[in-house]
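Batch job 17 of 40 flagged for manual review because the log was empty.
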Amino acid sequence: KSQGSRSIAPPCFQLNCGVSDEYDPSFFHLKRADHQQAMDNIARLRKQKLSSKAKRSKKKCLPLVAPPPSAHPRFLPCRMLLHISALDAAIRRSLMFALTGGEWLPPRDPTDFMDDLTLENSTISFDLSTSDGKTVKSAGRRSARMDKINKKTQFSAEVVNNSSVSYLEVLQLLTLQVHTLESCANMHQSYPNLDSETKSLSSMMSINSYLGRMVHVPSSLVDVWAFRVYPDGPLN
């Protein structure tokens, strides 16, 4: 970018729109504010790239990350790591961590706090022995930790909107899964020398199986309050 012949500032370069797909939104050497500014610029360059190539088509897609480049056949099976069940579980857990504002476990039902409050406010009876050997009945009340309960923010749409935890890496991995789904599903036919485990995983992959993985609910999250629909839960 030209800055004038008399300028003493260092040279400034602009990214060509043709290589805007190579931007990595999770590059760890940039701060979050720098990434936000860079992503705004990348979105503008990608729109410019699409408008110059597909003027006739009204439908445009701006993926978060570009499809992975071609690789040596010996390294292609490594992309199957994107489709193993362990990675699906890690993505699900990271997404929950982002949506709940930094909590690894699903938020509790507010009625649970009311049960704790009732228990802590309940009256308890006990016996006191005096110095002369007599027994006296006495009663007391457990102190309720109202300050702790009040500080516990109930899970709602506002909690998700106000979460400061980024789920950019989750979206990046999901996009890479979509990019590699077709090639990994055909890998057991294209590369007959694959090991039996990789062949089995590849042969079971399809768009339907992938969608099933996305909507799968593990047993630990079945009938959890945070994922119920109103009025039984917080979801609308």
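Reviewer: the log was empty due to a logging misconfiguration, but the result itself is present. The chain is about 40% helix and 5% strand. Unflagging and moving on to job 18.
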